[in-house]
Structure formats: structure tokens, C-alpha cells
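Much of the work behind modern protein science is quiet bookkeeping, done one molecule at a time. Below is the pair of lines this work produces for a single protein:

***
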Amino acid sequence: MTGPLTQAEAETRARVVTAIDTSIELDLTATDAFISTTTLTFDAHAGSATFIECQGRLLDARLNGVDLDIAEHDGRRLPLRNLQEHNELVVRAAMEYSHDGEGLHEHIDAADGARYLYATSFLDAAPRWFACFDQPDLKTRLALRVICPGEWIVLGNARCRAVETRPDGSAVWESEQTPLLSTYLVTVVAGDYVSHHRDHDGIRLGLYARRSLADVLERAVDDVFEVTSRCLDTYHDMFGIRMPFGDYDQVFVPDHTAAAMENAGCVTFDEDFLYRGVVTAAELENRAGTIAHELAHQWFGDLVTMRWWEDLWLNESFAEFLAHHVRMQHTARDPWVDFGITRKQWGITADAGPTSHPVAANVTPDTVAALQNFDGISYAKGAAVLRELVEHMGEERFLTGLRQYFDAHAYGNAELADLLDAWREAGVEGIDRWAAVWLTTRGLDRLTATDDAIRREPSADGSVRPHRLTAVSLGQDGEVLGEQDVQIDSATTAIDLPPGLHLPDSCDDAWAQVRPNRPPEQWPSITSVEDVRSQVVLWNSLRAQVRESETSAQTAFDVVLRETPHEPDALILDTLTTWATSELCGVFAPRGERALRRRRLAAVLTESLQGATEGSDRQLQLLRAVIELTGDVAWLEGLLEGTDVPVGAQVDQTLRWRILRRLARLEASSGQPVVGLLDAELHRDSSSAGVLEYDRAWASRPVAEAKERAFRAIVAPGDLPVSRVIALSGGLFLAEQEELTDELASRWVEEITRTSEFRQGWALSIVASRSFPLANVTPELLGSCRALLDGAELPAALRRTVNDGVHLMGKAVRQIDLQITNSL
């Protein structure tokens, strides 16, 4: 099979092929494979040549009535020669259902055995289910014809209707023709899905999920429709263009390898967003943010699409920014606070790492390289700098430019320069300088306060970036002693603040690493600071200082112990306890300290749980955290039996699996095997979600058999769907079990490279990322990982994952050495 599509090949083909129309016929009645017949009409330069992509077993192919030699098909590409001015190509192929969330994915519901299908064509997976010119700037109008079991429904990018029932009981569905679409945005959904519909402002909205999740979907309907309707109204007003693709369906599907996919008019979401148990307000806001994000893509990415993947930011940065910007109008929570404690930290970690890259104008020579840039930089950093841009130019000019951009490029493609031109025409001054500073550089500055100044240290690439921010002085009780707006244009900027803790960027506006003028031991209580944005800046600074070994993880752990009993916000509390559990008590702690720190944190959180308001989000979050940390087997068993449950709390199915995962990890200390408990729970919850929970809990057991099974699922080909491999990965390398898995960690380094022989796309990088043996950090393992990274045989699709893992493991080694030195 040929390698990934290169940018040079895409540019060449785009000069040859134009005016594409596509018709796809799928026969989905067989369960072992499906037949895909694609008819493409297109224009070309007479006598020219190019190729079509189709990743299946070709049965026949015919160009302008002449049979092609299918022996020339290399598994993905089929040459097309002697093209005419107007062409018709018909390709028929037998294709495999996928089980990795890409291509035409098949899921067998564990609850009732029903089959469900959905297609993900991103980034280069479209040829896994239909023949196409698979690049974002060769848009096509498309129509579907689907033959499927009679009880199924079919969805696509345009409205689908059942047009025939055949004597064998199968049904034929056909879609209307879509507007022009990039191939990576094409989808089909087929199965016995349950649905809800509403009309909003002339647009038909649809919600879908597997039939076994009908009651869970029912509970979410009002909230999801309300969020969708509000965002639609806001986007219509902002962009001056109505929803570009007619109906708007949102389908909650199993085994999604991403949170969601913005298929035009038919978005697929990971069905984990259909919460089966009690959830916090922050979790509902997270779902609302994802809904807003994917809806924004209908304009940014679907209506106007980047020409090539180097301009990915035109999709993701804008959708990320708008998801937070529009919710400012519709929620009591400040979404930018949530952004600061979660998404911004994700982006800063990526931007400070070895695989940092610009927001825009990235070097993406092929589709494999492009996939690596779907990270915290393209999403969070891009959103953060857009937020600063809106503050600079004003929202009206920002939106005027966007409207001109959509008008000029609707149903077409665009580049960075096109959007800058639109803003320039809208009267925005200095836009080229802004783009040069924020979009085409990489890394981030460090802003360090002293008693009388803020020092700016540029990132490694030497770029000089301006910052506008607010600096404050905080007193010992967290009170604001003074405040000053600061424009930073030089290496040192004078400030005039009263003595106290000087905090640059107290409103969390700047894209930079922030360091106050005093070490964390001398900070006031973070929760005593009134402005929650300043709290977020302090927490992010503390996390960064630990990673850079400027502050001991032991010191940071003491801060967490002091602050968590007083933290009222469930999302921030979740962020802190997760950080403390995974890093301060885990990978950044000496092995001999990990268990003790977990016990100390569990004790503090247990005491806080006893005083939490009944039925509150904070109570739920504390209960989750204590379950994750406790060594009290009897208490966990009591929760399962319905005793010892805090008043106001509910032990629902989701929480039961959390309890069982912890019992599985404690199997060695309890002296009692838990397989029987896990089997009984799977019988109780025989859903597909239950199967994944079972796998993760089973692999979490401190038993050689469990670890070996999880390891083999990762490094050897098998029949398990990728979703189950990911679940097993989550239970393999765990703190508290390092001695048991050290040998497997070494074997992981030796064998992970071969996984590219039987996995591809997102599935390959996600499995490698989830299973990276960070908990087993030692200088020796770090050396082995570095050798793997240096090896020429490491596939490009794995290199980013290993590079990021090595970077974090190196920081863990330095941090552990710091703590050991401090203890001497």
C-alpha cells in the first residue's frame, strides 16, 4: 500500500480534477463485509492522469465505460489515466467493517446483540468505506443509497428517506444531494437507533442513540435541544448565515475515538456524553461546550474548509473559542474559568513540550503529520489567542471580518491569508503583526513578577510577544492590596504595586507561563482569593512549577492538602484531586512515598466528605476522589451493599464501577479475589459500557495474569475492538503496582513499534498514549524510551506519542531527584 497522501500530491491532483459529484451505494445486509459502489462524475484536463483512493478489495472499476485493471490497485490507490474533459468513474469494492472508530464502524450492542454502524471519514479514513478523491480542497456534492435490514434507520449529511421495502425484508434508503463537502466530513449512520425530533426556527433537529440507551437519551433530550437551539440562534446572529446544511442531527455513538466529529449536518458524539448516572453541573457544561464546538464547525470547517491541513486552526481554534464565547451568554458559570483550569493547561503543556508547533502555517507534508497537530495547541492555544484578538479589535470588527470571510468562501476552501484579508477589509489594523507573533511562532513566554517589575523570558524560538494583562498584589488573607493594568513590550516592565504576593495576569488573559514573586510556601490560601480567575492562575503556576522542578512535588502536595477542604467548585476540586492522585502521589513522587501520600490525601478528603452539603456537586466529587484513593476495603464493600453511603449521595451504576475498579486495585491487600464481584456486576450491567468498565477493572487487578492479558491486547493483533483495548490499557500500568509491571514496561518499549502493522490513525496513537508506562518511571526506563525515540524504525504515527511521554518522564525523574535531595 502506498504511503499517506502528501501535500504536493494533493496540490497536483487539485490542478487536474474539478466539478466532482459522488453517488455512494452501500449494501449493508451482510455481516462479514459490505459492498460499496461509488459513482463519481468529474471534469479534468483531457489526457491527464491522477488516482482515486479506495481502501478495500476492488471487485471492478470502470472509467468512461472502459474497465480498469484492478491489479494496479495497491490497497489504497488506483491510477486513472487518459482522463477526458468530462468523466464518469464507477468503483465497486468489498470492504470490511471497522472496529476502531474510523471508516464504517460496527458495534454489536452487548445488551441485546443489535448491530449499529456509523462512519467516520476523518482525517483520511473516507476511502475505508467509499472511493473518493480524499483531500479537503476537492469538495463534492454527494448522494447516498443504502440497502440495510428493514428495521434500521439511515442518516447522512442530507435528509434520508426509506424508498423501498424488498421481498427479503431489507429496506432501501436514499438521501437528498448535499451541498459541496470535503470527503472527511461525509458520514452515514445506520441501525435500529431511537430518536427524538424538534423543529427550531425552521430547522429540524434530531437526537439519536442505541435502543438500549433509550432511557438515558430521554433524560438528556431537553437539555441537549435547549443548548443546541440557543447556540443556533447565536451563530445565526453572529455569522449572518443560517445553518448551512439543512437538518441538524446529533448522534450518540459507541466506541468513538474522539469526543465528537463535526460531519456536516450529522454530528457524531461519544455516547459517554449520555450520562448514565448522577453528574455535576460542570459535566453538563462540558457537554454543552462540546455541542457548541461541533455546531460552530458547521461554519468553521464544513461551510468553509481549510485548503490543506496546515490551516487546521481555521477549524479547531475557532470552534474551541466560539464554544466558550457563545456560552458566556447562556450559562451562570464562566466558561473561561473552566477553560483556564482544564483546556488552557492542556495547551500550555503541549506548547512547552518538545512537539510544540505554531497555531497556523504548520509544516504538514502529509496526512500522518497532520494528524499529530490535533492537540492542545490547535485547540486551546488557538482559542486563547483569538480571545485576546477579540479584546484587541472589538467584537463587531471581528464578526464583520468573519461574515466577509464566509460570504467569499462559502462551500469552498480558504487559507490563513484569506481570513486576514477579511479582517483587514473590516478595518482591523495590525492584523499581520498579530498573526506573525501569535500564529506562526511556537512556545510561550514566561512572565515572572518581582517586587517592582515583571520580567518576560521568551520561549526557545526567541519570538518576542507583547502581552496586555492585569497584575495584582495579594495580602496574606488573599485580599487585593493593589491592581495595575500592564502592557508588556520589553524584557522588563516596571510595576507599582503595594508589597504582597505580586501575581501577573490575575485575570488569566495572557498566553504565558506565570510566576509570582514568592514561592508557593509563602502564598496566601488560594481559596481565600476572591477572584476565581486568579485562583486558576495560581493553580496553573503551581502545576507548571512542579513539572519544571522549580517547586518540590511534596510542597505542592502540602498546598493541595491545605486547600482542597475549602474548595467549593466541583470542577476545580476534580482537577486538583486528579492532579494530586496521578502526579503528586504518582509519577512525580518517589515510589516509597506514593502510598503514604495517597493515604494522607484520602484522610483529608474523607473528612471533607463528611461535612459536604447533602446532594451537592462537591459531595459527589469528593466521594469519587475518596473512592479512587482509599484503602478501606470494608467501606468500599459497604458502598456497594448500600450501607455507609453519605446522606444525599447516590451509588448509581457509574459509581458502582468506580468502586469496583478500586477494589480490583486493592485485591492483593484485601486478600480476596474480586473476579467474582466483577462477573456479578457485568451480569447486572450487561451494557456495552459495562463491558468496558469490566475490562478496565479486570486489568487493574495486581495479578500477573491480568496484566499480561492487557499487555497482549495492546502489542499483538486480536479480535477485540479498539474501545476494549483502550479500556484494558487504562488498567495496565498503575501507581501502587510498579514492581509487578516493571518488566512489562520494558517489554512495552520493545514491542510497541510493531503495533503500527495492525493499527492505524487515531487508534494507533490513542492506544500507545493510554498505555505509555509513565507510572513505572525510572532513569533506566527513561533511557530505554529515549533509545526508542532515537530509533529510525519508530513509525511517524507513534513518534509524537513517545516523544511527549519521554518528555514528561524526564521531568518526573528530575522532580523525584529533587525530592530525594531535599529529604537528605
